[in-house]
Amino acid sequence: MYQNNAYKTYKSNSVTYASKEQLLLMIVDGAVKYAKLSKNAIENKEVKKAHEYLIRTQDIFVELMSSLDMDKAGSWGNDLMELYKFINSQLVQINFKKDINLLNKVIPLIEGVRDMWYDAYKVAKR
Question: Among 58, 60, 93, 119, which has the highest number of CB atoms less than 10 A from its own CB?
Fold first, then answer.
């Protein structure tokens, strides 16, 4: 019980005191995590869990779209927004059909978004 409370406190503090950049990294990590959990749930015919994980992943991409500052992003912002929209629309289709083949194609895109933001974070910290 104590370990569980300590972990919850740690997670809460890590979010509370994280920078904007660190929060973004946590969010994109979550997208990868939930996409992979949804894949596992689809493979195991756990439709309700798959739906919940896919919705969480979609919610993350909606948040990424809404937080993208298009005025500051410049031309690359438009490309990134289109990628976010594409991934989100694919997640809707995957959730509707529970299509593991399509999910297998989308997970690398989600991982690519995560990797891109990690790379950007490393460059910004130099």
Answer: 60
- pLDDT tens-digit map of 43-68: 999 999 999 999 999 999 999 999 99
Q: Which two tokens stand for residue 62?
A: 């909606």
Residue of 83, 100, 86, 1 whose CA lies nearest to 43: 100
Domain boundaries of the chain, sorted by first residue: 20-125
pLDDT at residue 10, rounded to an integer:
43
Tell whether pTM > 0.70.
Answer: yes
Token readout for 7 is: 């972990």
The Cβ of residue 38 has, within 10 Å, a number of other Cβ atoms equal to: 27
> Which residues, including other chains, have CB under 8 Å from residue 55's CB and lie 6 or more apart?
95
